[in-house]
Amino acid sequence: MTKKTFGKIMPHQVSESLTIMGEQIMLARKRRHLSMQDVADRATITRRTLSKVELGDPTVSIGIYARVL
Length: 69
Known about the structure:
By secondary structure, this protein is mostly helical. It has one domain: lambda repressor-like DNA-binding domains (434 Repressor (Amino-terminal Domain)). It has four helices and no strands. α1 crosses α3 and α2 crosses α3. It is globular and about 35 Å long.
């Protein structure tokens, strides 16, 4: 039986949407004069994870994106 693999290649539209969402999250944070640490603490995530969110990293779970929003 062959092993199926999922999610190896992400469609360009999805990747682009994540990048745009990350940029919008960063802009919203900056407009509110919040530091990355402030937002990370509120979302109970690390600053590094927030950085990944703001970069639109597809390896971050959708639940993390929701907590940041």
